[in-house]
Queue: 4 jobs
Job 1
Amino acid sequence: MTIDKSLKRKGRLARLRSVISRDERIAQMKTDERWVEGSSPFGLPKLRVVRLVVGKKKKKKAAEGDKKDDKKKAAVKKK
């Protein structure tokens, strides 16, 4: 049997998933300090799937602008 193309991305899905596995739920509950050791892994509550949003890099432009301002200030001080 062959694997579908959408499942062949370095062991992950190419798109976002709306369902997480039991192991992922337990790990997320541990980070939120909601997991009690010794609890049953069955009947876990539903958890929100966190989606990462990639934003634009505005800080880089601001850093470049700061460098230009520093060069102008240095040129003014030399005169």
Job 2
Amino acid sequence: MKKGMVAAFVGATALAASAFGAEPEKIQNAVLYSLSEVEGRQTLVYDGFRTAPVAENVVVVDAIGAGVDNLPKLAAALGTGPDWDALKFGDVVGETLGDALVATVTTEDGLVSSIAITGWFERPTIGVSMVVKDGYSSGQRTIITALLRCGAKVYLIPKIAQEEECDKYLANLDGFVMPGGTNANPRLFGEVPYPHGSAKIDDVRDVNDVLVTRWIVAHNVPGLWICRGVQFLNVALGGGLIQDVPTYLGTRVLKGEIPWKEAEPIPDEGAPGLTANDPIIRCMPAHYRVKAYGIAHVGARHSLGSAEKPGIEANSKFLLPIVGQNYYPSVMTSHHLAADPERIGKGLTVVAHSPDGIIEALEYQANDFALGVQFHPDADTTSSDPELARFGYSFFQALMASVLARR
């Protein structure tokens, strides 16, 4: 590919069809990911979440002199996806892919009718921190796939146990993502473990996530912290956590801060032990745990406020531009710890809440891009709902836009 043709990626732009609905749809600035045969038909994956079969008479236009003017050349330029079974810590995922191609993609009647190559960029390296001790999780693979589709290559950061290892493993990163995972050990933020608090802790990952987060923030590397990630963004910068959201909400009900009528008690059937091998411990007496305003935080969806009562603050530097409005109707959450509003880490700004008052996003606004979200945009990237998939990918595209703007 001819060097020097670098495109500034700022996220794809859809050109809406007319009110009569007959015009083709054009997606500008779309990053192309793969061209392969699916069920006997050439299929293009582009703009993160979009997938469409290619028309037999598709037109491929090379507008930048990259030498890509037909489907075979396009397939060769895009390269091949990773061998997932062979991956290990320290690997760079996406080395078998080509440079990221940017194009205007036109679809008609559900088929890609034309692809106009308008730019390209060398894939930046986004680090993804460890999740499990001996490999990567399915959730981590979802994040890696999203980043690859957005034009990155991904470095699987090895376990970091000492501060001096950060320079060794993180110095060449262009961006960073911390995935969700197990509960934090409360002793990290100066508390004794609560019976319904941190179960099945992983001290090895806890140390890793604190050290990595501090280094990423201190070096202004664009970063996205998801679920457990936002909790460790807060802890690493000196903040604390609510050990159990239902118990915390129960105490707010008892204090009169949440009306009794808005609280639904959760039966106390005992608490899991601190490690994965500990049995369920029956609580005597039982604890008052609730969900409030009908909001569930474990494996459920809820809103970030509403048009009448926004859940996203007007002072948000990163989240608000991604969402495009001061509320969102449905985010996926799965957690029972959360950032403690009374103990927010140094330099962090709270920018979003769920309707029951739980913190849903933190930002380190002194940096170019440092966003932590309690919900799971990564889960939405795999949704069959196009709007949810677009929403999920918008977070990874925003991270990429920040990374590329620094070049």
Job 3
Amino acid sequence: MSLFNPKSVTFDIGGGRMVTIETGKMARQADGAVTVRQGNCILLATVVANKEPKPGQGFFPLSVDYQEKFGSAGRIPGSFFKREARLNDYEILTSRLIDRALRPLFPEDYLCEVQVLITLISSDEEVMPDSLACLAASAALAVSDIPIQEIISEVRIGRVNGELIINPSRTQLAASDFEFIIAATDKNIMMVEGESNECQEEDLIKAIEAGHEAIRLQVKAQQDLRGLVGITAKREYTKPYRNEALNEKITAFAKDKMYAIAAAASAKFERSDAFKALHQEVVDFLGEELPDEDKALIGHYTGDLQYYVVRDMILHERKRLDGRGTEDIRQLEMEIDNLPTPHGSALFTRGETQSLTTVTLGTPLDELLMESANKSDYTNFFAL
């Protein structure tokens, strides 16, 4: 008799390209684990979460790591060290795309540590694994009892010869004139990121709509898989201590003062100092006799109050912290050749944000080897 009793669902993402999500065979000690397969490309996603938050935990510790193992393509890294170490830039950026879509879906009062790992364990030359990574992460959460509030997925949209393609192959992507990554639930768009030489607004809207329709299919597949596994309820968790009476007291004392600071259109450092001074006023107002557990909430409630006051000012008065309207941009200034020795330099300033950039010209001997599980290419343009 087999040790395994896997459950799986299969769906078509278009053009007869079948994707299978399976759970119950690998990583069975994780809170949730799935494999996602398209062609020869297989991703393993696992999720684990602590049952209780750490004492004094004041934030949600979610970590998302996406990694493409060279062994998945039967390759050994060509670097001196031959061993795979930290995530490369591409893997870090892919991890952030997944994190950005998943993080808002956890309850605001959920502070238990959560770890999401997505690993490419088998590679296909034509299948882009990063476009399946968020699907894998969400599916692993869906078949677990970790209290995520909604199921999501991500797709890549490309356009080749005027035709929109969901999760284009490597060959198709090379011929595509735009590329967007879209994350969504079955009802709401969570994130859009991408690039294009030129893109009309109506073309972008069509791409988002096509991507959202594909995501709805993937969300339905995850729901079906969760039903097969038998997950009907999410785990209960310890909620952080809150004192609504204290919140109301802080709001009554500080709301008008908070608004005055936000509406003053002062410089960033002045505004920051003013917010810190107001926080100290709140501490002095509440007094030293406040219980220790309530003292720890002062920063939380004043931070929330600042968030809502600033947000309401922007939404209702169409006014930002520095006095700009919602359609006004910061003053821009650019200088070139401002450093004497580098081959090229530029200083870009937008409001209080600055970027100093230099360029160095080399020879063909300076080309950089860029390696991933699927390819090794030399590039003559790279950022340091």
Job 4
Amino acid sequence: MKNILLIIMLFLIKISSAQNTLPDYLKTAAENNPELASKFSEYNASLQIIPQVKALPDPKIAFGYFIMPVETRTGPQQAKISASQSFPWFGSLKAKENTAIQAAKAKYEIFNQTKTTLFLNVRTSYYTLYYIQKSIQITGENLEILRTFKKLAAVKVETGKASATDELRIDMEIAELENKLALLKDSFYAEQVKFNKLLNVKNESPVVISEIEDQSFVFDKQAVLDSIKKNNHNLKVLDFKLMSLEYLKTSAQKDGMPKFSVGVDYTLIGPGENNLAGTDAFLAPKIGISIPLNRKKYKAKVSEVQYKQDAVKMQKENTENLLETASENVYKDFKDAERRTKLYVYQTDIAKKTIRLLENEYAVSSVGFEEVLRMERKVLNYNLALEKAKSDREKAKSKIYYLTGK
């Protein structure tokens, strides 16, 4: 029975840990983040504009009552009912519809850009937590080594093989590391709150950090730059804005064309002479035309759109320049992190071998104490630097995903 319960517990732990991966956190952020939900609502709102702009103007119905009835051969006119429907120039409604469609697509890309920004922030915070957690672990392990080393120093002091200052120096090192460890724990909680806020969950929700796997990642600068120009959501937003403005210019041009209306009048006739019932008159349909005479107004509308197009084109060119610069910086950061990772793997291995030799020397003699402490600090710093390099490498990869719209 105990074995069965143990198997069940291990299975549940395995499921729990499997559910706490970075992709799961990204999914939670996408589902819960209020800013992302806000952008999606704005996109849905923009979709509701499309059926509004492509609809015809509302028909007009008017009722008139003759205070002084107009006498006709069949009787006095008492009231009149009119109905009319106006129609814009051919293609006007389609141009407005296309303008709204492209504007809605731009809103959708703004939503996607918000999502990629959110994912970048989640990834960056996650790898910051990774580094802090590793720092806590490494610092704690180093503290245990120093405490063991302190016991060795105490034994040597008692036997007169070492100076009491050796023990005091170790106490100073331990106190410094304990203070650093306390700061790291506070930093981890602060970053955990930030991470959970991105996911819009409780501040105290535990964050499970997985080991960083050394996966091969080829950074082809030209391929990344091509992907940015093709897939970056900020550039897509500007492309859709340009298309929307092009249709808006067409719409502005068509606003300067005549508009038509058709309608009918129905006149109510009262009783005529000798109380004879009048005959209601149904008149033939009427046709109207609205001629836009103020040409300056419509030319100004077209010019306004043209200036807006020029502004967006310049904005797109500037955005492309900024993205290319960002791509170069990410490439630099990624290659630097890769080099540092290889360097500190090598340096850490040598430092650990050196510290073991120094510790053995110190155990059998009173020489090398200063060198032991110095090498302990180096091992600590190299371990921390290695984990920082790994974290920075993953952050650089996350920035690549962000820039390429993935």
